[in-house]
Write a structure and sequence with these properties.
heterodimer; A: alpha+beta; Rossmann fold; OB fold (Dihydrolipoamide Acetyltransferase, E2P); six-stranded mixed β-sheet; five-stranded antiparallel β-sheet; 9 helices; about 25% helix; about 35% strand; disordered N terminus; B: mainly alpha; MetI-like fold; about 75% helix; globular
Chain lengths: ~375, ~260
Protein backbone atom coordinates (compact mmCIF):
# COMPACT_ATOMS: atom_id res chain seq x y z
CA UNK A 1 0.00 0.00 0.00
CA UNK A 2 2.66 2.50 1.03
CA UNK A 3 4.83 1.73 -1.99
CA UNK A 4 1.98 2.12 -4.44
CA UNK A 5 0.87 5.33 -2.76
CA UNK A 6 4.03 7.04 -3.89
CA UNK A 7 3.09 6.48 -7.52
CA UNK A 8 0.74 8.88 -9.18
CA UNK A 9 -2.15 7.42 -11.13
CA UNK A 10 -3.23 10.74 -12.58
CA UNK A 11 -1.41 14.06 -12.68
CA UNK A 12 -3.19 17.18 -13.85
CA UNK A 13 -1.56 20.57 -14.12
CA UNK A 14 -3.37 23.83 -14.78
CA UNK A 15 -6.22 22.11 -16.61
CA UNK A 16 -8.39 24.62 -18.46
CA UNK A 17 -11.57 24.03 -20.43
CA UNK A 18 -14.11 26.53 -21.81
CA UNK A 19 -17.35 25.92 -23.63
CA UNK A 20 -17.80 29.16 -25.51
CA UNK A 21 -17.98 31.84 -22.83
CA UNK A 22 -18.56 29.35 -20.06
CA UNK A 23 -15.52 28.31 -18.05
CA UNK A 24 -15.82 24.69 -16.96
CA UNK A 25 -12.26 24.38 -15.62
CA UNK A 26 -10.30 27.46 -14.61
CA UNK A 27 -6.86 25.93 -14.12
CA UNK A 28 -7.15 22.82 -11.98
CA UNK A 29 -4.06 21.04 -10.67
CA UNK A 30 -4.44 17.66 -9.06
CA UNK A 31 -2.41 14.58 -8.18
CA UNK A 32 -4.24 11.33 -7.64
CA UNK A 33 -2.25 8.52 -6.03
CA UNK A 34 -2.25 4.98 -7.35
CA UNK A 35 -4.65 2.76 -5.43
CA UNK A 36 -6.66 5.55 -3.91
CA UNK A 37 -10.40 6.13 -3.92
CA UNK A 38 -10.60 9.76 -4.96
CA UNK A 39 -13.79 11.77 -5.21
CA UNK A 40 -14.56 14.96 -7.09
CA UNK A 41 -17.36 16.58 -5.14
CA UNK A 42 -19.34 19.67 -6.03
CA UNK A 43 -22.65 21.11 -7.20
CA UNK A 44 -23.74 20.65 -10.81
CA UNK A 45 -21.81 22.89 -13.15
CA UNK A 46 -18.70 22.99 -10.96
CA UNK A 47 -16.58 21.24 -13.62
CA UNK A 48 -16.22 17.85 -11.95
CA UNK A 49 -17.76 15.88 -14.80
CA UNK A 50 -15.73 17.81 -17.37
CA UNK A 51 -12.57 16.88 -15.47
CA UNK A 52 -13.58 13.20 -15.45
CA UNK A 53 -14.36 13.27 -19.17
CA UNK A 54 -10.97 14.85 -19.87
CA UNK A 55 -9.25 12.00 -18.01
CA UNK A 56 -11.34 9.51 -20.01
CA UNK A 57 -10.45 11.22 -23.28
CA UNK A 58 -14.08 12.05 -24.07
CA UNK A 59 -13.35 15.75 -23.78
CA UNK A 60 -10.20 17.73 -24.51
CA UNK A 61 -8.19 20.34 -22.61
CA UNK A 62 -7.91 23.95 -23.78
CA UNK A 63 -4.77 24.30 -21.69
CA UNK A 64 -2.65 22.45 -19.16
CA UNK A 65 -1.30 18.91 -19.04
CA UNK A 66 -2.59 15.46 -18.18
CA UNK A 67 -0.55 12.38 -17.26
CA UNK A 68 -1.99 8.93 -16.65
CA UNK A 69 0.39 6.45 -14.98
CA UNK A 70 3.25 8.88 -15.56
CA UNK A 71 2.63 9.07 -19.33
CA UNK A 72 1.47 12.25 -21.08
CA UNK A 73 -2.08 11.36 -22.10
CA UNK A 74 -3.72 14.51 -23.45
CA UNK A 75 -3.15 13.42 -27.07
CA UNK A 76 -4.03 9.74 -26.62
CA UNK A 77 -7.48 8.95 -28.06
CA UNK A 78 -10.10 7.61 -25.66
CA UNK A 79 -10.03 4.05 -26.98
CA UNK A 80 -6.31 3.71 -26.31
CA UNK A 81 -6.24 5.07 -22.75
CA UNK A 82 -5.71 2.68 -19.80
CA UNK A 83 -8.87 3.95 -18.12
CA UNK A 84 -12.48 2.83 -18.18
CA UNK A 85 -15.64 4.62 -17.21
CA UNK A 86 -18.87 3.79 -15.42
CA UNK A 87 -21.31 6.24 -16.98
CA UNK A 88 -24.02 8.05 -15.07
CA UNK A 89 -26.71 6.60 -17.35
CA UNK A 90 -24.73 3.30 -17.32
CA UNK A 91 -24.80 3.45 -21.15
CA UNK A 92 -25.31 -0.30 -21.46
CA UNK A 93 -25.66 -1.33 -25.11
CA UNK A 94 -29.38 -2.14 -25.40
CA UNK A 95 -28.97 -4.52 -28.34
CA UNK A 96 -26.40 -6.72 -26.58
CA UNK A 97 -26.93 -9.16 -23.71
CA UNK A 98 -25.39 -8.49 -20.32
CA UNK A 99 -22.67 -11.05 -21.15
CA UNK A 100 -21.89 -9.42 -24.51
CA UNK A 101 -21.88 -5.98 -22.89
CA UNK A 102 -19.27 -7.12 -20.40
CA UNK A 103 -17.23 -8.90 -23.08
CA UNK A 104 -17.21 -5.83 -25.37
CA UNK A 105 -13.87 -4.40 -24.20
CA UNK A 106 -12.05 -7.73 -24.48
CA UNK A 107 -13.52 -8.37 -27.93
CA UNK A 108 -12.19 -5.00 -29.08
CA UNK A 109 -8.76 -6.14 -27.86
CA UNK A 110 -9.12 -9.38 -29.86
CA UNK A 111 -8.66 -11.60 -26.80
CA UNK A 112 -9.18 -15.33 -27.47
CA UNK A 113 -12.86 -16.35 -27.09
CA UNK A 114 -12.14 -19.04 -24.47
CA UNK A 115 -10.31 -16.52 -22.33
CA UNK A 116 -13.06 -13.93 -22.78
CA UNK A 117 -15.63 -16.45 -21.55
CA UNK A 118 -13.60 -17.17 -18.44
CA UNK A 119 -12.95 -13.52 -17.63
CA UNK A 120 -16.59 -12.54 -18.19
CA UNK A 121 -17.62 -15.22 -15.72
CA UNK A 122 -15.07 -13.90 -13.21
CA UNK A 123 -16.17 -10.30 -13.65
CA UNK A 124 -19.81 -11.24 -13.25
CA UNK A 125 -19.18 -13.15 -10.04
CA UNK A 126 -17.09 -10.22 -8.76
CA UNK A 127 -20.16 -7.97 -8.88
CA UNK A 128 -22.59 -10.80 -8.04
CA UNK A 129 -24.62 -10.95 -11.26
CA UNK A 130 -23.58 -14.40 -12.51
CA UNK A 131 -27.14 -15.40 -13.44
CA UNK A 132 -27.84 -12.40 -15.69
CA UNK A 133 -25.54 -13.21 -18.65
CA UNK A 134 -28.33 -13.91 -21.16
CA UNK A 135 -30.57 -10.99 -20.20
CA UNK A 136 -30.83 -7.74 -22.11
CA UNK A 137 -30.24 -4.41 -20.32
CA UNK A 138 -33.93 -3.57 -20.73
CA UNK A 139 -34.84 -6.59 -18.63
CA UNK A 140 -32.83 -5.86 -15.47
CA UNK A 141 -33.20 -3.46 -12.54
CA UNK A 142 -31.32 -0.21 -11.94
CA UNK A 143 -29.06 -1.77 -9.31
CA UNK A 144 -28.25 -4.66 -11.61
CA UNK A 145 -27.48 -2.26 -14.47
CA UNK A 146 -25.04 -0.47 -12.19
CA UNK A 147 -23.27 -3.77 -11.51
CA UNK A 148 -23.14 -4.63 -15.21
CA UNK A 149 -21.62 -1.23 -15.96
CA UNK A 150 -19.05 -1.84 -13.23
CA UNK A 151 -18.18 -5.33 -14.52
CA UNK A 152 -17.97 -4.07 -18.12
CA UNK A 153 -15.40 -1.47 -17.07
CA UNK A 154 -13.41 -3.54 -14.55
CA UNK A 155 -12.97 -6.56 -16.84
CA UNK A 156 -10.47 -4.50 -18.87
CA UNK A 157 -8.26 -4.16 -15.77
CA UNK A 158 -7.92 -0.37 -16.17
CA UNK A 159 -5.19 1.56 -14.34
CA UNK A 160 -7.89 3.99 -13.32
CA UNK A 161 -11.62 3.43 -13.04
CA UNK A 162 -13.71 6.55 -13.59
CA UNK A 163 -17.17 6.69 -12.05
CA UNK A 164 -19.61 9.43 -13.05
CA UNK A 165 -22.30 9.74 -10.36
CA UNK A 166 -22.30 5.94 -10.14
CA UNK A 167 -25.14 5.70 -7.64
CA UNK A 168 -27.07 8.82 -8.65
CA UNK A 169 -29.91 6.98 -10.37
CA UNK A 170 -30.63 4.58 -7.50
CA UNK A 171 -32.95 4.90 -4.53
CA UNK A 172 -31.58 5.73 -1.10
CA UNK A 173 -31.50 2.23 0.40
CA UNK A 174 -29.80 0.65 -2.61
CA UNK A 175 -27.41 3.58 -2.78
CA UNK A 176 -26.25 3.00 0.78
CA UNK A 177 -25.76 -0.73 0.14
CA UNK A 178 -23.82 -0.14 -3.05
CA UNK A 179 -21.67 2.56 -1.42
CA UNK A 180 -20.29 -0.02 0.95
CA UNK A 181 -19.93 -2.61 -1.78
CA UNK A 182 -18.12 -0.19 -4.08
CA UNK A 183 -15.79 0.75 -1.25
CA UNK A 184 -15.01 -2.89 -0.43
CA UNK A 185 -14.46 -3.69 -4.11
CA UNK A 186 -12.00 -0.82 -4.46
CA UNK A 187 -10.07 -1.79 -1.32
CA UNK A 188 -9.91 -5.41 -2.52
CA UNK A 189 -8.82 -4.70 -6.11
CA UNK A 190 -6.52 -1.81 -5.24
CA UNK A 191 -7.47 -0.11 -8.52
CA UNK A 192 -7.46 3.68 -8.50
CA UNK A 193 -11.07 4.88 -8.47
CA UNK A 194 -11.99 8.44 -9.39
CA UNK A 195 -15.58 9.15 -8.55
CA UNK A 196 -17.62 12.21 -9.48
CA UNK A 197 -20.51 12.94 -7.15
CA UNK A 198 -22.66 15.75 -5.87
CA UNK A 199 -23.64 13.70 -2.82
CA UNK A 200 -21.40 14.77 0.06
CA UNK A 201 -22.24 11.75 2.18
CA UNK A 202 -21.28 9.40 -0.65
CA UNK A 203 -17.93 11.16 -1.02
CA UNK A 204 -17.24 11.10 2.72
CA UNK A 205 -18.16 7.42 3.10
CA UNK A 206 -16.20 6.00 0.16
CA UNK A 207 -13.14 8.17 -0.40
CA UNK A 208 -9.58 8.30 0.83
CA UNK A 209 -9.41 11.88 -0.37
CA UNK A 210 -11.95 14.33 -1.73
CA UNK A 211 -11.52 17.41 -3.91
CA UNK A 212 -14.38 19.86 -3.35
CA UNK A 213 -14.93 21.80 -6.57
CA UNK A 214 -16.73 25.06 -7.17
CA UNK A 215 -16.95 27.18 -10.32
CA UNK A 216 -14.19 25.34 -12.17
CA UNK A 217 -11.71 25.35 -9.29
CA UNK A 218 -10.74 23.09 -6.42
CA UNK A 219 -11.84 24.75 -3.17
CA UNK A 220 -10.20 22.21 -0.89
CA UNK A 221 -8.53 18.83 -1.29
CA UNK A 222 -8.37 16.78 1.86
CA UNK A 223 -9.36 13.62 3.69
CA UNK A 224 -13.09 13.34 4.44
CA UNK A 225 -12.45 13.96 8.14
CA UNK A 226 -10.38 17.11 7.58
CA UNK A 227 -12.90 18.46 5.08
CA UNK A 228 -15.69 18.13 7.58
CA UNK A 229 -13.82 19.18 10.70
CA UNK A 230 -11.62 21.89 9.19
CA UNK A 231 -13.29 23.41 6.15
CA UNK A 232 -11.18 26.24 4.77
CA UNK A 233 -13.83 28.21 2.89
CA UNK A 234 -17.48 29.15 3.40
CA UNK A 235 -18.34 27.10 0.34
CA UNK A 236 -16.78 23.91 1.71
CA UNK A 237 -18.24 24.50 5.16
CA UNK A 238 -21.76 24.88 3.78
CA UNK A 239 -21.55 22.28 1.01
CA UNK A 240 -20.51 19.50 3.37
CA UNK A 241 -23.22 19.15 5.98
CA UNK A 242 -24.87 22.15 7.56
CA UNK A 243 -22.88 24.86 9.24
CA UNK A 244 -23.30 28.09 11.22
CA UNK A 245 -21.25 30.97 9.87
CA UNK A 246 -20.32 33.62 12.42
CA UNK A 247 -18.73 36.84 11.20
CA UNK A 248 -16.87 39.26 13.46
CA UNK A 249 -13.95 41.62 13.92
CA UNK A 250 -10.66 40.80 15.61
CA UNK A 251 -10.12 42.61 18.89
CA UNK A 252 -7.04 40.80 20.19
CA UNK A 253 -4.41 38.48 18.69
CA UNK A 254 -2.33 36.21 20.91
CA UNK A 255 0.24 33.58 19.95
CA UNK A 256 -2.28 30.75 19.68
CA UNK A 257 -5.62 32.42 20.17
CA UNK A 258 -7.64 35.39 19.09
CA UNK A 259 -10.57 37.32 20.46
CA UNK A 260 -13.33 38.37 18.11
CA UNK A 261 -16.30 40.69 18.56
CA UNK A 262 -19.34 39.04 16.94
CA UNK A 263 -23.09 39.79 16.89
CA UNK A 264 -23.35 37.01 19.49
CA UNK A 265 -20.88 38.68 21.82
CA UNK A 266 -17.14 38.45 22.30
CA UNK A 267 -15.75 34.99 21.47
CA UNK A 268 -12.34 33.46 21.95
CA UNK A 269 -11.04 31.10 19.25
CA UNK A 270 -7.93 29.16 18.30
CA UNK A 271 -5.76 30.28 15.38
CA UNK A 272 -5.13 26.75 14.13
CA UNK A 273 -5.72 25.99 10.46
CA UNK A 274 -5.75 29.55 9.30
CA UNK A 275 -3.58 30.80 6.48
CA UNK A 276 -5.28 34.15 6.59
CA UNK A 277 -3.24 37.16 7.70
CA UNK A 278 -4.89 38.56 10.78
CA UNK A 279 -5.07 42.23 11.59
CA UNK A 280 -6.53 44.07 14.54
CA UNK A 281 -10.09 45.10 13.65
CA UNK A 282 -10.03 42.92 10.51
CA UNK A 283 -13.11 40.96 9.50
CA UNK A 284 -13.07 37.18 10.04
CA UNK A 285 -15.60 34.38 9.64
CA UNK A 286 -15.91 31.19 11.67
CA UNK A 287 -17.67 27.97 10.81
CA UNK A 288 -19.37 26.07 13.61
CA UNK A 289 -20.99 22.67 13.09
CA UNK A 290 -24.44 22.50 14.74
CA UNK A 291 -23.48 19.40 16.73
CA UNK A 292 -20.51 21.24 18.28
CA UNK A 293 -22.81 23.65 20.12
CA UNK A 294 -23.55 22.71 23.72
CA UNK A 295 -26.91 23.86 25.06
CA UNK A 296 -27.16 24.79 28.72
CA UNK A 297 -30.18 25.54 30.85
CA UNK A 298 -28.14 27.85 33.09
CA UNK A 299 -24.89 29.72 32.74
CA UNK A 300 -21.91 28.75 34.85
CA UNK A 301 -20.10 31.66 36.41
CA UNK A 302 -17.36 33.21 34.24
CA UNK A 303 -17.52 30.50 31.57
CA UNK A 304 -16.26 32.07 28.31
CA UNK A 305 -17.93 31.74 24.87
CA UNK A 306 -21.39 31.29 26.33
CA UNK A 307 -24.20 33.28 24.71
CA UNK A 308 -27.82 33.72 25.78
CA UNK A 309 -30.29 32.43 23.19
CA UNK A 310 -34.00 31.84 22.83
CA UNK A 311 -35.27 28.52 21.42
CA UNK A 312 -37.32 29.25 18.29
CA UNK A 313 -37.95 25.89 16.66
CA UNK A 314 -37.51 22.33 17.79
CA UNK A 315 -37.42 19.52 15.23
CA UNK A 316 -37.37 16.00 16.58
CA UNK A 317 -35.49 13.65 14.25
CA UNK A 318 -35.46 10.36 16.09
CA UNK A 319 -31.81 9.98 16.97
CA UNK A 320 -31.28 13.71 17.42
CA UNK A 321 -33.09 17.00 17.86
CA UNK A 322 -32.47 20.13 15.78
CA UNK A 323 -32.83 23.50 17.45
CA UNK A 324 -33.12 26.90 15.85
CA UNK A 325 -31.83 29.48 18.29
CA UNK A 326 -32.24 33.24 18.17
CA UNK A 327 -29.82 35.81 19.52
CA UNK A 328 -30.91 39.33 18.60
CA UNK A 329 -31.26 39.51 14.80
CA UNK A 330 -29.22 36.38 14.26
CA UNK A 331 -29.98 32.68 14.36
CA UNK A 332 -27.89 29.61 15.08
CA UNK A 333 -28.72 25.98 14.49
CA UNK A 334 -27.77 23.28 16.94
CA UNK A 335 -28.11 19.51 16.88
CA UNK A 336 -28.23 17.49 20.07
CA UNK A 337 -28.19 13.71 20.31
CA UNK A 338 -31.37 12.72 22.10
CA UNK A 339 -29.47 10.11 24.10
CA UNK A 340 -27.39 12.91 25.64
CA UNK A 341 -30.40 14.95 26.78
CA UNK A 342 -30.77 14.71 30.52
CA UNK A 343 -33.99 16.63 30.86
CA UNK A 344 -35.94 15.60 27.75
CA UNK A 345 -34.81 18.59 25.69
CA UNK A 346 -35.76 22.25 25.50
CA UNK A 347 -39.10 23.76 24.49
CA UNK A 348 -39.76 26.59 22.01
CA UNK A 349 -39.65 29.99 23.73
CA UNK A 350 -37.27 28.87 26.45
CA UNK A 351 -34.41 31.26 27.26
CA UNK A 352 -31.25 29.16 27.45
CA UNK A 353 -27.50 29.40 26.80
CA UNK A 354 -25.30 28.05 24.00
CA UNK A 355 -21.67 27.23 24.56
CA UNK A 356 -19.40 27.67 21.51
CA UNK A 357 -16.14 26.04 22.57
CA UNK A 358 -13.02 27.72 21.20
CA UNK A 359 -12.07 24.46 19.42
CA UNK A 360 -15.46 24.37 17.67
CA UNK A 361 -14.85 27.73 15.98
CA UNK A 362 -13.10 27.02 12.67
CA UNK A 363 -11.49 30.11 11.20
CA UNK A 364 -12.23 30.33 7.45
CA UNK A 365 -9.95 31.73 4.74
CA UNK A 366 -12.69 33.82 3.20
CA UNK B 1 -59.26 6.18 -21.01
CA UNK B 2 -62.87 7.11 -21.52
CA UNK B 3 -64.69 6.25 -24.78
CA UNK B 4 -64.89 9.05 -27.39
CA UNK B 5 -68.03 11.20 -27.67
CA UNK B 6 -70.55 10.89 -30.52
CA UNK B 7 -69.24 13.88 -32.47
CA UNK B 8 -65.64 12.67 -32.32
CA UNK B 9 -66.70 9.16 -33.31
CA UNK B 10 -68.70 10.51 -36.26
CA UNK B 11 -65.84 12.70 -37.47
CA UNK B 12 -63.41 9.80 -37.26
CA UNK B 13 -65.74 7.51 -39.21
CA UNK B 14 -66.21 10.15 -41.90
CA UNK B 15 -62.47 10.67 -42.14
CA UNK B 16 -61.79 6.96 -42.57
CA UNK B 17 -64.61 6.72 -45.11
CA UNK B 18 -63.06 9.43 -47.30
CA UNK B 19 -59.65 7.84 -46.91
CA UNK B 20 -60.56 4.29 -47.75
CA UNK B 21 -63.80 4.32 -49.77
CA UNK B 22 -62.10 5.14 -53.11
CA UNK B 23 -59.51 2.43 -52.55
CA UNK B 24 -62.17 -0.12 -51.70
CA UNK B 25 -64.09 0.86 -54.84
CA UNK B 26 -61.01 0.25 -56.96
CA UNK B 27 -60.51 -3.18 -55.41
CA UNK B 28 -64.18 -4.13 -55.85
CA UNK B 29 -64.30 -3.00 -59.47
CA UNK B 30 -61.18 -4.96 -60.31
CA UNK B 31 -63.45 -8.02 -59.91
CA UNK B 32 -66.27 -6.56 -62.06
CA UNK B 33 -67.05 -8.51 -65.21
CA UNK B 34 -68.21 -5.38 -67.08
CA UNK B 35 -65.70 -4.02 -69.57
CA UNK B 36 -67.01 -0.44 -69.45
CA UNK B 37 -69.03 1.73 -67.09
CA UNK B 38 -69.72 1.47 -63.41
CA UNK B 39 -72.50 -1.13 -63.45
CA UNK B 40 -71.82 -4.41 -61.64
CA UNK B 41 -72.37 -7.34 -64.01
CA UNK B 42 -70.78 -10.18 -62.12
CA UNK B 43 -67.65 -11.42 -60.36
CA UNK B 44 -64.57 -12.30 -62.37
CA UNK B 45 -60.80 -12.63 -62.02
CA UNK B 46 -60.18 -12.43 -65.73
CA UNK B 47 -58.65 -8.93 -65.52
CA UNK B 48 -55.88 -10.31 -63.37
CA UNK B 49 -55.31 -13.09 -65.91
CA UNK B 50 -55.34 -10.49 -68.68
CA UNK B 51 -52.61 -8.53 -66.90
CA UNK B 52 -50.33 -11.56 -67.02
CA UNK B 53 -50.69 -11.61 -70.81
CA UNK B 54 -50.12 -7.87 -71.16
CA UNK B 55 -46.43 -7.33 -72.03
CA UNK B 56 -46.72 -3.58 -71.49
CA UNK B 57 -47.98 -4.07 -67.95
CA UNK B 58 -45.33 -6.68 -67.17
CA UNK B 59 -42.48 -4.48 -68.42
CA UNK B 60 -43.87 -1.55 -66.50
CA UNK B 61 -44.08 -3.66 -63.34
CA UNK B 62 -40.49 -4.84 -63.84
CA UNK B 63 -39.30 -1.25 -64.44
CA UNK B 64 -41.14 -0.03 -61.37
CA UNK B 65 -39.55 -2.65 -59.15
CA UNK B 66 -36.05 -2.20 -60.58
CA UNK B 67 -36.38 1.56 -60.21
CA UNK B 68 -37.74 1.39 -56.67
CA UNK B 69 -35.27 -1.25 -55.46
CA UNK B 70 -32.17 0.32 -57.00
CA UNK B 71 -32.98 3.89 -56.01
CA UNK B 72 -33.92 2.79 -52.48
CA UNK B 73 -30.65 0.92 -52.04
CA UNK B 74 -28.56 3.89 -53.18
CA UNK B 75 -30.65 6.51 -51.35
CA UNK B 76 -30.64 4.52 -48.10
CA UNK B 77 -26.86 4.16 -48.12
CA UNK B 78 -26.25 7.82 -49.03
CA UNK B 79 -29.04 9.13 -46.79
CA UNK B 80 -27.74 7.19 -43.80
CA UNK B 81 -24.23 8.54 -44.31
CA UNK B 82 -25.57 12.06 -44.78
CA UNK B 83 -27.78 11.93 -41.70
CA UNK B 84 -24.98 10.46 -39.58
CA UNK B 85 -22.34 12.83 -40.89
CA UNK B 86 -24.42 15.97 -40.33
CA UNK B 87 -25.29 14.90 -36.81
CA UNK B 88 -21.98 13.54 -35.58
CA UNK B 89 -19.28 15.68 -37.15
CA UNK B 90 -18.57 19.37 -37.08
CA UNK B 91 -17.22 21.08 -40.17
CA UNK B 92 -17.48 24.47 -41.86
CA UNK B 93 -20.85 24.89 -43.54
CA UNK B 94 -22.49 22.17 -41.48
CA UNK B 95 -25.39 24.40 -40.44
CA UNK B 96 -25.92 25.39 -44.07
CA UNK B 97 -26.02 21.80 -45.28
CA UNK B 98 -28.31 20.87 -42.42
CA UNK B 99 -30.83 23.55 -43.37
CA UNK B 100 -30.79 22.91 -47.14
CA UNK B 101 -31.32 19.20 -46.44
CA UNK B 102 -35.02 19.84 -45.92
CA UNK B 103 -35.59 21.88 -49.07
CA UNK B 104 -36.17 18.97 -51.49
CA UNK B 105 -38.92 17.77 -49.16
CA UNK B 106 -40.82 21.04 -49.58
CA UNK B 107 -40.14 21.66 -53.28
CA UNK B 108 -43.19 20.72 -55.37
CA UNK B 109 -42.64 17.51 -57.35
CA UNK B 110 -43.33 19.29 -60.60
CA UNK B 111 -40.56 21.86 -59.97
CA UNK B 112 -38.15 19.08 -59.02
CA UNK B 113 -39.14 17.15 -62.14
CA UNK B 114 -38.63 20.07 -64.49
CA UNK B 115 -35.34 20.98 -62.84
CA UNK B 116 -34.06 17.44 -63.24
CA UNK B 117 -35.26 17.28 -66.82
CA UNK B 118 -33.49 20.53 -67.65
CA UNK B 119 -30.33 19.33 -65.94
CA UNK B 120 -30.38 16.06 -67.87
CA UNK B 121 -31.04 17.82 -71.17
CA UNK B 122 -28.21 20.27 -70.60
CA UNK B 123 -25.81 17.58 -69.41
CA UNK B 124 -26.73 15.47 -72.40
CA UNK B 125 -26.20 18.39 -74.73
CA UNK B 126 -22.78 19.38 -73.35
CA UNK B 127 -21.35 16.10 -72.13
CA UNK B 128 -23.32 13.45 -73.95
CA UNK B 129 -24.25 11.83 -70.63
CA UNK B 130 -27.67 11.25 -69.08
CA UNK B 131 -29.73 9.98 -71.96
CA UNK B 132 -33.26 9.76 -70.57
CA UNK B 133 -34.12 6.25 -69.45
CA UNK B 134 -34.14 4.03 -66.39
CA UNK B 135 -30.76 5.36 -65.20
CA UNK B 136 -31.89 8.98 -65.18
CA UNK B 137 -35.07 7.92 -63.38
CA UNK B 138 -33.05 6.09 -60.73
CA UNK B 139 -30.85 9.16 -60.20
CA UNK B 140 -33.93 11.38 -60.02
CA UNK B 141 -35.59 9.14 -57.45
CA UNK B 142 -32.41 8.94 -55.37
CA UNK B 143 -32.40 12.75 -55.36
CA UNK B 144 -35.80 13.08 -53.77
CA UNK B 145 -35.42 10.02 -51.51
CA UNK B 146 -32.15 11.03 -49.82
CA UNK B 147 -33.52 13.84 -47.62
CA UNK B 148 -36.33 11.62 -46.33
CA UNK B 149 -33.89 8.88 -45.35
CA UNK B 150 -31.45 11.37 -43.81
CA UNK B 151 -34.18 13.06 -41.77
CA UNK B 152 -35.40 9.73 -40.37
CA UNK B 153 -31.82 8.69 -39.51
CA UNK B 154 -31.25 12.01 -37.75
CA UNK B 155 -34.41 11.57 -35.70
CA UNK B 156 -33.23 8.12 -34.69
CA UNK B 157 -29.75 9.42 -33.83
CA UNK B 158 -31.24 12.24 -31.78
CA UNK B 159 -33.03 9.65 -29.63
CA UNK B 160 -29.78 7.78 -29.01
CA UNK B 161 -27.95 8.36 -25.70
CA UNK B 162 -24.60 9.88 -26.78
CA UNK B 163 -23.04 8.05 -23.85
CA UNK B 164 -23.51 4.76 -25.74
CA UNK B 165 -20.98 5.74 -28.40
CA UNK B 166 -18.72 7.21 -25.74
CA UNK B 167 -18.92 3.98 -23.77
CA UNK B 168 -17.85 2.02 -26.86
CA UNK B 169 -14.85 4.29 -27.37
CA UNK B 170 -14.06 4.10 -23.67
CA UNK B 171 -14.03 0.30 -23.96
CA UNK B 172 -11.46 0.37 -26.74
CA UNK B 173 -13.51 0.60 -29.94
CA UNK B 174 -12.17 2.92 -32.63
CA UNK B 175 -14.50 5.10 -34.68
CA UNK B 176 -15.32 2.45 -37.27
CA UNK B 177 -15.85 -0.29 -34.65
CA UNK B 178 -18.09 2.04 -32.66
CA UNK B 179 -20.20 2.73 -35.74
CA UNK B 180 -20.30 -0.90 -36.88
CA UNK B 181 -20.98 -2.50 -33.47
CA UNK B 182 -23.04 0.12 -31.64
CA UNK B 183 -24.43 2.93 -33.79
CA UNK B 184 -25.42 0.90 -36.85
CA UNK B 185 -27.39 -1.80 -34.98
CA UNK B 186 -29.10 0.86 -32.88
CA UNK B 187 -30.16 3.05 -35.81
CA UNK B 188 -31.03 0.02 -37.97
CA UNK B 189 -34.79 0.32 -37.35
CA UNK B 190 -34.45 3.92 -38.58
CA UNK B 191 -32.56 2.79 -41.67
CA UNK B 192 -35.25 0.22 -42.34
CA UNK B 193 -38.01 2.78 -41.89
CA UNK B 194 -36.14 5.21 -44.16
CA UNK B 195 -35.69 2.53 -46.82
CA UNK B 196 -39.36 1.61 -46.58
CA UNK B 197 -40.44 5.22 -47.03
CA UNK B 198 -38.00 5.69 -49.92
CA UNK B 199 -39.33 2.52 -51.57
CA UNK B 200 -42.93 3.65 -51.23
CA UNK B 201 -42.12 7.14 -52.52
CA UNK B 202 -40.45 5.64 -55.57
CA UNK B 203 -43.18 3.07 -56.14
CA UNK B 204 -45.97 5.61 -56.51
CA UNK B 205 -44.05 8.53 -57.91
CA UNK B 206 -45.59 9.79 -61.12
CA UNK B 207 -44.49 13.36 -61.75
CA UNK B 208 -40.71 12.99 -61.49
CA UNK B 209 -40.78 9.63 -63.29
CA UNK B 210 -42.93 11.02 -66.08
CA UNK B 211 -40.51 13.85 -66.81
CA UNK B 212 -37.29 11.89 -66.53
CA UNK B 213 -38.34 8.67 -68.27
CA UNK B 214 -37.29 7.74 -71.77
CA UNK B 215 -38.55 5.31 -74.36
CA UNK B 216 -38.88 1.83 -72.87
CA UNK B 217 -38.65 2.92 -69.24
CA UNK B 218 -42.36 3.22 -68.58
CA UNK B 219 -43.36 2.48 -64.97
CA UNK B 220 -46.73 1.39 -63.60
CA UNK B 221 -47.90 4.88 -62.57
CA UNK B 222 -47.05 6.18 -66.05
CA UNK B 223 -48.76 3.19 -67.68
CA UNK B 224 -51.86 3.69 -65.57
CA UNK B 225 -51.92 7.38 -66.40
CA UNK B 226 -51.68 6.81 -70.13
CA UNK B 227 -54.30 4.04 -70.01
CA UNK B 228 -56.71 6.16 -68.03
CA UNK B 229 -56.51 8.79 -70.75
CA UNK B 230 -58.16 6.20 -72.99
CA UNK B 231 -60.84 5.51 -70.40
CA UNK B 232 -61.07 3.67 -67.08
CA UNK B 233 -60.81 -0.07 -67.58
CA UNK B 234 -61.06 -2.91 -65.08
CA UNK B 235 -57.54 -4.16 -65.81
CA UNK B 236 -56.23 -0.85 -64.49
CA UNK B 237 -58.23 -1.53 -61.34
CA UNK B 238 -56.60 -4.94 -61.11
CA UNK B 239 -53.17 -3.37 -61.54
CA UNK B 240 -53.95 -0.79 -58.86
CA UNK B 241 -55.19 -3.52 -56.53
CA UNK B 242 -51.91 -5.41 -56.94
CA UNK B 243 -49.96 -2.25 -56.15
CA UNK B 244 -52.04 -1.71 -53.01
CA UNK B 245 -51.35 -5.30 -52.04
CA UNK B 246 -47.61 -4.83 -52.55
CA UNK B 247 -47.57 -1.67 -50.40
CA UNK B 248 -49.60 -3.41 -47.70
CA UNK B 249 -47.26 -6.39 -47.65
CA UNK B 250 -44.23 -4.11 -47.35
CA UNK B 251 -45.79 -2.13 -44.50
CA UNK B 252 -46.77 -5.32 -42.70
CA UNK B 253 -43.26 -6.72 -43.07
CA UNK B 254 -41.79 -3.53 -41.63
CA UNK B 255 -44.17 -3.59 -38.66
CA UNK B 256 -43.27 -7.20 -37.92
CA UNK B 257 -39.56 -6.45 -38.16
CA UNK B 258 -39.87 -3.54 -35.76
CA UNK B 259 -41.95 -5.58 -33.33
CA UNK B 260 -39.23 -8.23 -33.29
CA UNK B 261 -36.68 -5.51 -32.52
CA UNK B 262 -38.86 -4.01 -29.81
CA UNK B 263 -38.85 -7.26 -27.83
CA UNK B 264 -35.20 -6.63 -27.02
CA UNK B 265 -35.85 -3.21 -25.55
Amino acid sequence: MSASQNLLAVEIKEAKRNFGNVTALAGVSLEIRAGEFFSLLGPSGCGKTTLLRIIAGLDALNGGTLKIGGVAAAEIPAHQRPVNTVFQSYALFPHLTVGDNIAFGLRMKKIAPAQIKERVAQAMSLVKISDLAARFPGEISGGQKQRVALARALINEPQVLLLDEPLGALDLKLRKELQVELLQLQRRLGTTFICVTHDQEEALVMSHRVAVMNAGRIEQLDSPKNLYEHPRTRFVAQFLGSCNLIAGNVTAINADALVVATPFGVLGAGRRNSSRPLTMGGAVTFAVRPEKLTLLAARLADQPNVIPVRVEDVIYNGAETQYRLRCGDHTLSAVVLNASHTNGGFKPGEEIFAHLAAEALVLLDD
Amino acid sequence: MKPPGKLLRGTALLLYFFLYAPIIVVVIFSFNAARYGVGWTGFTTKWYAALADNPLALTAAKNTLVLAATSTLIATALGTMLGYGLKRFYFPGQKFFQSVLHIPVFIPDIVMAIALLMFYELAHHWLGWFELGLTTMILAHVTFQIPFVAIIIQARLAGLDPALEEAARDLGANEWQTFRRITLPLIFPGILAGAMLAFTLSLDDFVVSFFTSGPGSQTLPILIYSSVKRGLTPDINALATLMILASLAATLALTLLQRKKAVHK
